[in-house]
Design brief:
alpha/beta, 14 helices, 29% helix
């Protein structure tokens, strides 16, 4: 099963919004086949392993990290090929919470006379598929808040200079994390201050996440790196100003609204049209206190199939996601540096919490030494 877990990890970044799944087939004490879910829309782990197997699989034992699917989707059911190939016993890491499966896959195998054992390496597999397990049950992205700060809690000097807070290895880890996420998110303040690319810059071939900018009042510059490269890397700008007030209030009829939008595109007078011509996708969100409503943004991104987000600044955006209760996990890189400055930016801005007893708590803490930087990872405790 641990070999199956290792195989499953190879699909990181390529199977969104599907789960990471690995499969190993054993006969006579030897591995005779293995596979994993390699890319969204392609065969699942079990089918990859069994169709590529050169040995006789009758009477073999199959290990798979997630319950085999039993419905037709983009690919045929994995239960069918397991039965066809004469597998005698199946070890399943965790059951699939997808309502289309949810125990049905196990029952089909058992009804076919196959012995099924569930719950092997369950904790490891749940951690591996934390994104899928949240998304399949809520249709909202799993959110990791990443920040890099000095020992005195600053993400930039009082001048705004922030290159670089952490060391090269820490920055490399961030790029590796980006490659595993469906989307990376920055606030307009960070875009205006740093003009970032928000892409994965590592040697070799890596998945590139969707770049998402939360820009309530549509201030993103046409000459920013994000806009100039929007046709190369998918880029979404979430805003509240796409429609006119009259459109939002329903004061313009459907036909008039169609004509109005058509005329606006022909005129090319608005920044909206210029942005769309660069390849930027505009996503209109509900407004809350004159800013993008984070919960509405989460719902809309989830509906688009974006199952995971990496927050990469700045303090205002981090505060908004935390206040909305939309952060699942935190990665905090702390560099052994002190820069001071009462006006220097901190990882979380906003109004803040009044009492220490109300502080947002982390659990399942993991602490790593990254060539001198300290990385603290933890899950947000439920406040229910």
């Amino acid at each position: 099963m641990r070999r199956a877990i290792a195989l499953a990890k190879k699909g990181g970044g390529y199977v969104h919004p599907n789960p990471l799944v690995g499969c190993v087939v054993v006969k006579g004490g030897q591995i005779i086949a293995e596979g994993y879910h390699e890319k969204y829309g392609e065969f699942h782990a079990e089918r990859n392993a069994l169709t590529r197997c050169q040995a006789d699989t009758r009477g073999a034992t199959l290990y798979v990290t997630l319950e085999p699917c039993c419905h037709y989707g983009k690919t045929p059911p994995c239960t069918e090929i397991i039965i066809e190939k004469g597998i005698k016993k199946v070890f399943v890491g965790i059951l699939d919470p997808n309502p289309l499966v949810a125990g049905k896959g196990v029952k089909i195998l058992q009804d076919a006379g196959i012995e099924v054992v569930t719950g092997l390496c369950e904790d490891e597999i749940r951690e591996l598929n934390k994104v899928f397990l949240k998304y399949i049950t809520t249709k909202r992205p799993y959110v990791i808040l990443k920040t890099a700060m000095t020992l005195d809690g600053k993400i930039a000097a009082f001048t705004g200079d922030s290159r670089w807070v952490t060391n090269e290895r820490s920055r490399q880890l961030v790029h590796e994390l980006r490659s595993e996420m469906a989307g990376v998110v920055a606030g307009i303040g960070t875009v205006l201050a740093d003009d970032p690319m928000l892409n994965v810059r590592l040697e070799g071939h890596y998945h590139q996440p969707v770049r998402i900018v939360v820009d309530s009042n549509l201030r993103i510059p046409i000459d920013s790196q994000l806009v100039k490269t929007a046709k190369e890397y998918r880029t979404i700008v979430a805003t509240t100003v796409i429609s006119t007030e009259a459109e939002r209030n329903g004061e313009i009829s459907f036909n008039c609204r169609r004509f109005f939008r058509f005329w606006r595109k022909l005129s090319l007078r608005s920044g909206l049209d210029k942005l769309e011509m660069t390849g930027v996708e505009l996503l209109e969100c509900q407004s809350k206190n004159n800013h993008v409503d984070i919960n509405d943004l989460m719902a809309k991104l989830g509906a688009m199939g974006i199952d995971s987000l990496l927050l990469e600044g700045g303090g205002t955006l981090n505060a908004a996601f935390l206040e909305a209760g939309c952060v699942d996990e935190v990665w905090a890189f702390i560099a052994p540096k002190i820069i001071g400055g009462a006006a220097a930016q901190t990882p979380v801005a906003g109004k803040g919490i009044e009492r220490m007893s109300d502080a947002i708590q982390l659990q399942n803490i993991d602490i790593q030494n990254i060539n001198g930087d300290i990385l603290i990872k933890g899950k947000i405790c439920s406040r229910e």
